Amino acid sequence: MEFGLLGRKLSHSYSPQIHSFFGDYKYELFEKEPCELSSFFYSKNFKGINVTIPYKKDVIKYCDELSSVAKQLSSVNTIVNTNGRLFGYNTDFFGFSYMIKKAKIDVENKKAIVLGSGGASVTCCAVLKNLDAKEVIVISRNGENNYYNLNKHFDAQIIVNATPVGMYPNVNESIIDLNDFEKCEGVFDLIYNPDKTLFLQQAEQLNIKFSNGLSMLIAQAKQSAELFLDKIIDDNIIEKIEKEFIL
Question: Please, which residues bridge with residue 4 across strands?
Fold first, then answer.
């Protein structure tokens, strides 16, 4: 076992194909239930892994050290095994920053809402604040700002879906109705399979700028591969890989 992706449901994942562009190494999918995490990390039978829904926070306790970004965000999506010591990193920060830049959607001085409160949401909020968004509000099922009082934030200009709602195979679900957000200027959906969720289809119909999560996925994978292989990989490869998937 060399490298791979840890998550609960991974049938939708493009990660093995993406990592094949970075080097000649084996990359597997590790579908684990929560009760299996302890034995997985006890064995340490991997050189490096990526971590996805719903374990980006759960894996922190298994890491011996965290990068400054992972520590700040309390979210880990990349773990490197160095002589039995597990080092946790967050490459999603770079990935979402790249996604926003590529989409050419200006978030500076804009009100943003982030749907979802998991590890990905924390990272998205940090990036938006880093890019000087005026206000960043997390919408969760049970928090102070939730789907029952969402009308308080119908003035949002930027909307990010950091939930799995609409992801394959549940492609007929949509997280919110964009018709309610008359000031919306840009929509980001971290989902990449399908490439255009119902959420993004509605954004397109309403002529709102949008981006799916493919560029973020590839960008964070590129930075993860740099950590796995201990070498620098040119950012230009991100767009080249994305074209392979779009075609």
Answer: 28, 49
- Does residue 12 have a pLDDT over 90? no
Same domain, 209 and 99: yes
Q: Please give the residue range of the domain that contains residue 70.
A: 3-90+217-236
- Picking from 59, 42, 70, 45, the residue whose alpha carbon sits closest to that of residue 8 is 59
106 phi and psi angles, rounded to 5 deg: -80, 120
Q: How far apart are CA 158 and CA 236, in angstroms?
A: 27
Q: Which of 56, 110, 111, 222 is catalytic?
A: 56
Distance CA 15, CA 29 (A): 8
Is residue 183 annotated as part of the catalytic site, yes or no?
no
Q: What one-character-per-residue DSSP string does 137-204 give?
A: EEEBSSSSSBTTSGGGGTT-SEEEE-S-TT-TT-TT--S--GGG-TT--EEEE---SSSS-HHHHHHH
CB of 101 closer than 8 Å to CB of 239: no
DSSP 213: S
Count the domains in the chain.
Answer: 2
**How far is 192 from 216, CA to CA, in rounded Å?**
9
Alpha helices in 53-157 (DSSP H): 68-73, 92-103, 119-130
- Do 163 and 203 lie in one domain? The reply is yes
Would you say residue 241 lies in a domain?
no
Across the range 209-232, mean pLDDT stands at 97
Q: Would you say the pTM of this structure is higher than 0.85?
A: yes
